[in-house]
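Hi there,

I know you've been waiting on this one. I reran it after we fixed the sequence typo, so this is the corrected version. Both the input and the resulting structure follow.
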Amino acid sequence: MLKIQFPLLPEVFSDTIYNIVRKLRTMNGMSTFYRFLQQLHPMPDEHWQLLSAGLRVQELKGGTVLLAQGKIARELFFICEGVVRLVKHTSEGEDITMFFLKENRCAAVLDSFSKNMPSDYTLEAACDIAVIALHREYLLRLYEKIPYLEALINTITQQGLMEKIRTRNEYMGLDASQRYRHFLQREPDIVSRVPLSTIASFLGITPQSLSRIRKNGRS
């Protein structure tokens, strides 16, 4: 009797499920980005098709660098899942977290992206993330085909800049304990997703000081 074996079935099945999940996540990310743009400016289907043809969904591990300090920003990112941090590397070898960006936000270093110049900052995944990437060269070509797109992108990036300024101003004049309490109230979900050392860097305190503040808050 002929004995039939299916040695690859589990692997094929697992790979199929993996691909299905990836496709569903990609579709969900694209639809989220589409709704995000539609809230800012109505976009007909033919314009969305042109734009979406140049979009790539990337799933990246925490610690992955999206843009390194000193490099020129070639891509604009829309965050579907996770948290991205804006980092300044000092000459003393210190990494300072300047800002956090999370779901439904665009991540870019504005001067580098718009002026094609080296970035003063690093963009890094603060945890596992899923982002939509749009290459600068493709975007520039789209400006000729979609008249309002440049103004729309400028609005998005300017809103991001104003949010960074507003956020930093909220922490001015607060001591370390007050800064942490304010961060807890403002970004409770980030606290549970990124390393405490990264939060300490953003708050301008040492990880040891943050641990003491957290311990005192629980006592």
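Quick highlight: The radius of gyration is 21 Å.

Best,
R. S.
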